[in-house]
Design a protein that fits this description.
4 helices; single chain; about 150 residues; mainly alpha; about 0% strand
Length: about 150
């Protein structure tokens, strides 16, 4: 099976611009990998936010059941000391998420995009596209270059 010219390599959006060296492509790959890790960390942060919020809402039931069982002093203790408590001084989890997004995540995304724009006209995943090209079996229908 012969490949068409469109199948013979990365699409224009994934080709390295003229004059861009291997070290630059590798550096952009590392920058992209770091951003992907930050995306995963941010997802975990949202998981932390949702799990902690869910636990706090479940405390309502625990307090209710402690009262129903006649353990008023313990219900009062949970309600006073844990229910609605800050997770770090002065902040609930939504505030931690907001601070992370403002202080770290958004600036990281903006800087990564700026570096790509300045160096390779905003092209993404050049390192991966070249790795795909090197590893695929030309002519195999499930190894096509794609878009």
């Amino acid at each position: 099976m012969r490949e068409t010219p469109e199948e013979s390599g990365p699409s224009a959006g994934h080709e390295r611009p003229p004059g861009i060296g291997d070290t630059t492509v590798e550096a952009l790959g590392a920058l992209s990998e770091a951003l992907e890790t930050v995306e995963r960390a941010r997802g975990h942060l949202y998981g932390f936010h949702q799990l902690t919020g869910g636990a706090d809402l479940t405390l309502d039931r625990a307090v209710e059941l402690l009262r129903k069982a006649g353990h008023t002093e313990h219900a009062d203790l949970v309600e006073r000391e844990i229910l609605g408590r800050n997770v770090i001084p002065g902040s609930w989890t939504y505030q931690v998420v907001e601070a992370y997004n403002t202080t770290y995540y958004r600036p990281f995304v903006e800087v990564e995009a700026r570096v790509r724009q300045d160096l390779v006209a905003g092209r993404q995943h050049l390192y991966e596209a070249e790795m795909k090209e090197a590893r695929r079996t030309h002519g195999h229908p499930d190894h096509s270059a794609g878009r």
